[in-house]
Amino acid sequence: FFFFFFQLPSNKMRCTRAEFSDSEANLYGYLAVIGSILFFGSFAVPLKSKRVTDAKVDPAVFQIYYSISIFFSAWVVLFWFHSCITDWGEFFAALPWGIISASCFVPGSILSIFAINHLGMSVAVGIWAGLTIVVSFIWSRIIVDASAPQIYHPERTYSGLVTLVLGVLLLSLSSTSFVSQIGKKGNPRRSHYEETDRLIRNPEENHLIQDEDKDKPKQNKFIGLTCAILLGFLNGSAMLPMKKAPAIASNISFVVLFGIGVLIVTPIVTLIYFGFKRQLPQMKFDCALIPGLCTGLIWSVGNIFAVYATTFLGLGIGYPLTQLALVVSGLWGIIVFREITEKSSLVWWAVALLIIGAGVALLIFGAVQ
C-alpha cells in the first residue's frame, strides 16, 4: 500500500486535484482515506501499554515527545514533495496558517489523552471523531464554499448530520453500566451485605482491596466526555487553515508548516499547562520517550494521508471520512484492551457504529448529483 501510494510523487509530481483526472483524484483520495483510517485509529495504542499506564505519565509530557516526532516526520514529506514548492519565500510566509492549525492540534492532543484515560479508547475516539465530522462539514459549507462539493440533496445532507450526532451519543453510552445491564435479570453485583460479610470473614482482604483501588487509575466520565467534546471542535477545525492558506501551501506541503507550528506551539501550551498546575514536568524518559515518539509517528503518517484526502476530496467529505478511524480504534479497544466485554455493550457499540456509518453515507450522497 505504501509503495503504491508513494510512487505517485516520484513518477509525476502533481500536488493539487486540478492536475489529476477526476477518476485519478478520487482513487488517490479514497486510498488516502483508508491509510488515514488505519493510522489515526491506531495512534493511541502505545499510550495503553501497561508500562505507560502504570507510570502515570502526564499527558503534557507525552505531548512533548509526540510533537518532536511530528516535527521531524514532516521533513520526510518535504523530501518527497519539495517540487510542489516553487517559491520558498512565499511558502514560509504562510507559516502563520501552520501555527493556527497546530494551535488546534496541540491542546486537542492533550485533551485526547485525558479522554482516553477517563472514557477508554473505543468510546473516547468515537465521540470526538463524530463531532469532528460534523464540525469539519459545517466549516466546509460556511467558510470555504468554493472548495466544498455542491449539495444536490439537502435533505440527505442534514439528515446525515442528525443521524451522525445520534450515533455518536449512542456510542458514548456503550461502556456505561446502564447499557451493560440490559437484558440481565437482577443485579449481578455483590450486595452491601455480601461485601461486608466477606471482609468480616477475611479482614486481610480489606488491605488488599484498598491497595488495589489505590493503584487503579481513577476515571471521571464527566472529565472524559468534556475533553472528547472539546477535542471534536478543535479537531474539526484543524484542516481549515490549510484550505485558507495561499495556493502554494494549500496541498501536501502544508504538513511541513504544520510540523513547524507544532514545534512552536507545544512549549507555550506546556508552560501554561504546568504553570496552571504549579509543578515541574516529570519527563520519565525510561518509560515515556519511545511510546511518545511512536505515537507521534503513527499519528503523523495518518495526518499525511488526511491532508491528501482533504486535498483530493475536500474538507466536507475527505477529512470527515478519515474520522472513520473510530472503527479501527474501537476494535483495538474491544479486542486487545478488553474495554468493553459485556455482550449487551458490544451489541450497542456495533449498532451505534452502523448508525454513524449511515450518517456518513447520507453526507456523501447528499453531494452526489
Largest sheet: none
Helix and strand element order: HHHHHHHHHHHHHHHHHH
State the helicity in percent bands: over 70%
- Return the average pLDDT rounded to an integer: 79
Q: Give the terminus-to-terminus CA distance.
A: 31 Å
Low-pLDDT runs: 188-200
Given helix and strand content, the structural type is mainly alpha
Tell me, what's the shape?
Answer: globular
- Count every helix, treating DSSP H or I runs of 4 or more residues as helices: 18
Report the C-alpha radius of gyration, rounded: 22 Å
Beta-strand percent range: under 5%
Number of strands: 0
Q: What's the structural blueprint in terms of helices and strands?
A:
Elements: H1 2-11, H2 22-40, H3 50-55, H4 59-81, H5 88-93, H6 95-119, H7 121-142, H8 154-172, H9 177-180, H10 192-201, H11 204-215, H12 221-237, H13 240-244, H14 254-277, H15 285-313, H16 318-322, H17 325-336, H18 343-365
Helix pairs in contact: 2-15, 2-17, 4-6, 4-14, 4-15, 6-7, 6-12, 6-14, 7-8, 7-12, 7-17, 8-18
